[in-house]
Amino acid sequence: MIQIIFNESLYKGNEQIYKFGSFNQIYQxxxxxxxxxxxxxxxxxxxxxxxxxTNIITNYRWVVLFAYWILAFSxxxxxxxxGPIWNSTAVYYNIxxxxxxxxxxxxxxxxxxxxxxxxxxxxxxxxxxxxVSAILSAIGAWIVWIGGxxxxxxxxxxxxxxxxxxxxxxxPVYLAELYFSEYQRAIAICFGxxxxxxxxxxxxxxxxxxxxxxxxxxxxxxxIDSMNLMVAILNTVAMGLCLILIRKKDQLLxxxxxxxxxxxxxxxxxENILDLLAFSVYVGIGxxxxxxxxxxxxxxxxxxxxxxxxxxVYQSSGVFVGLWVSLKLDSTVRKGIRPDYDYYIKIITMVxxxxxxxxxxLISRFDFTLLLIFNFFIGVGFNTIYPLAMAAYCEKLxxxxxxxxxxxxxxxxxxxxxxxxxxxxxxxxxxxxxxxxLLMVTPxxxxxxxxxxxxxxxxxxx
Length: 462
Known about the structure:
The structure is a single chain. This protein is mainly alpha-helical. The chain is built from 20 helices and 2 strands. A two-stranded antiparallel ribbon has the order 1-2. Helix 9 (126-146) packs antiparallel against helix 13. The longest helix is centred in the N-terminal third of the chain and has 33 residues, at 43-75.
């Protein structure tokens, strides 16, 4: 009972301020606050109201997260499903295989062009902004289907899908702060971040088996039409769920400093810049790694089925291990202990780096089993880091709003992914694509191991 009162009494604006430590220390330090609070209310009534209100809030917060998850899952389903059928997609749109990459590039380019303009609307009206994103996602998916085999119309559709993603992609940390207590934020951030990865993994799985052993292009074209229609319907369902389930919520805008000053402090600090580069390199490579390794594997004689299964293993391993890590972090917070982001960041990135290192040297000698094992652990390193990077970076840049902290990280991550996606299709660089990734990651892996340290400014008691 006292714990509930204590948690409710330490709010400043829209942010819950708390300090980890033993309950007795917290109780003694804040005894006067607790006593004053208890004088204003009747304990019995408070408990009755608190129980009812807590049940409603607990259920609703997961409903909002589910609606957001479906939106992010559906949005990426279309372009990701083309991965296992790269050459067939090129024939369908009557383009070269290299140009298929521009569907993914639409997402990269629209993010760093449009995402900064979405943050203020998200802070003012989270619900309406997500509505706009969901509507754009549905419109873009229907344009792709209606356009049929027209490459220019498909690009237009994916451009609109990319704008939709630019509105919602930086949301997971803010959504967790807005709806969840500190005891559930790690798992909420994880679910929000992994909606995209789950969409990519599921679309890879679907396309791999749907088009398995089909060589007749006419039949492939029909199946691509059907798949695009399914994606349009799925995005429409996601739009409906967002419109129905996400409701207006009070959002307090209290900034201790102007946004410009906070951004200057964040961007003109050597440590913050290195943190941003390190996280963004891992996130950017993690997004485009499966494209890179898929192109590499075809040169070593692996067929479409094996390449697709490799992609599924890579995407899925990061999701499952990431969920486990997030549950561990939430469990730590529930015990009154500050979450140790640094430990997991060092271990996870080291695992991904070492397996990428050995794969780069030995990939030409891999059999299928060894390929799956290595890509499982590479997925753990380069996908599990995604929600951890978001959460840890927001803690270091506090009081900069989490939307802006994650936007900075994702803009640079998208830029890195775009550059890699563009250069790996060049014939002269394709054989060295894994080496390029390894060279980019090496200095930042050393930085994570020996220099990086999260600063928990958000957890200081004010």
